Amino acid sequence: MNALAHRRFLKMNGLGNQITVLDLRGTKLRVGESDARAIAAEPRARFDQLMVLHDAKTPGTDAFVRIYNTDGSEAGACGNGTRCVAWAMLADPMMGDASKTVLTLQTKAGLLPARRDSDLVFTVDMGAPRLAWDEIPLAEPFHDTAHFELQIGPIDDPILHTPCAVNMGNPHAVFFVDDPYRFNLAQIGPLLENHPIFPDRANIELAAVTAPDHIVLRVWERGAGITQACGSGACAALVAAVRRELSARKAVVSLPGGDLTIEWRESDDHVLMTGPVEFEWEGTLAPELFETAAR
Known about the structure:
By secondary structure, the protein is an alpha+beta fold.
């Protein structure tokens, strides 16, 4: 029997971004790629991102979190998922301490401090964006990652071209358009995600700046596809818009699932993301789902 069978999980969402939280603290258990894919295939545990809690590795942090996409690949950061984990560790009596209002999580992309602003609204410090071509990373040097050469479609009339590259724990390519909803993102998303310019693949954003303090956004997430919301994508879009001198350093980012407030602070270069979470249900992982995946 798979060691993850019968483990308790929480099913949550952040603006419709489907999140499953699995607490493995106090154990040596790990989630493999096939395990993540099996959990994603279970209707009640299905996720865009799976947030797996492990014992803290660094003094002063509350947990180490591994993040998995539906295809089993690992992500460096997930803003919506981090807010869900913060809720679980600060509100769920079996996982956390309701007397606390702040905590610090660690992922492979770095430290993510989070605070509870109200019962279901949390702010996550997503850290400073990485903007150099080899930090994103891109496959070849570009001096100006705010306008790098990439296009899709006919060379004399491309569908999309000249995005801005940002790493917010994951690599992102932000294309500025008049209307994100007029593009067939299901068709162009996988082509751009897997473009050779992105050695680690990339999240793809279509962004429209409608006012200095408002951005409309759709996201194709690396390893997950189209999602209702993407926290790191919203952060990347705001950073990209500021770099292009299209928006203020604080704006509301409207995604299909709802709004996030994003601020790129001048004082320390960090990006703050504020938004709600929703608890849906809890369950346990059935042994059969891992047996089916193993066949």
